[in-house]
Amino acid sequence: MTAEQTADRAPDVVLVLGASSGIGRASAVEFARRGASLVLFSRSLSALEDAATECRAAGARAVEVCPGDVLDADAVRAAVERATGTFGRLDVVVHSATVMAYGTVEDLDPAVFERVVDTAIQGTFHLFRAVLPVFRAQQRGSMVVVSSLLASVATPTMGAYITAKWGQLGLIRTLQQELRDLPGVHVSAVAPGGTTTPIYSQAATVLGNTGHPPPPVYTPERVARTVVAVVDRPRRLRQSGIANPLIIAGFRLLPPVYDALVGPLLKVFGYARDSVAATTGNVFAPVPEKEATRGPFRGI
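Request: output the structure for the sequence above.
Response:
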């Protein structure tokens, strides 16, 4: 989409999943600044209401709040219907809902592993099934899924999240191929590197500590601007992090070197210097008091 087309069109109707925290919340605010009408979806009603207040202050034309879990197909469908029923159409969908867990494959609770994987893969599947009939009827629409650098590489103790993100990206790429008959419908993935969101402190862990975004650490607002840019100029996959291509190249081209370095580097740069008991974090239920746009880490 050209800048002239963007300027001439009516403000978008945007559905944001995972809108109560992190990149999803920052993306909602970024679209609000463009005067969009928004439907905000996540599991935490109180945090969604806080996000809605931010979006109204930022300039949103209208904001609807729709609590629900991406694992509930009916709730996802209801959010899509809220957008089309209230505003008459749906232009953009941003999917940022995810959960994370730290622990080795041997030590992680199978229920936690399954929930992390299901949230990413089944949740994305439910969203695609709900949105595609609308986009197909409109013959247009943009969907941006917030992926991760960890959809392209692997690290120890993050097997659940890596499995989730690799599977999610496979689903996205498959859908991109299946929608070639709809040139006005775009499905994109944005893959951030380390980002200062609350996900690290909200994650399940059996390691005795929580996580830390690896450097270079970016702000959620910076990633949100990439999300908006991909709506304006669709891409199959957009890396959001200057070090991402280098890390991916090392993983693919020099696997013995990568495997020797990734564990020690993760211990230094990827774990917080805290001490916590084993916890399921927000994997099974939201923790509203920890929901915010930014986490406690410094970003650029």
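Strands lie at 13-17, 37-42, 62-67, 92-95, 101-102, 141-146, 185-192, 204-205, 237-240.
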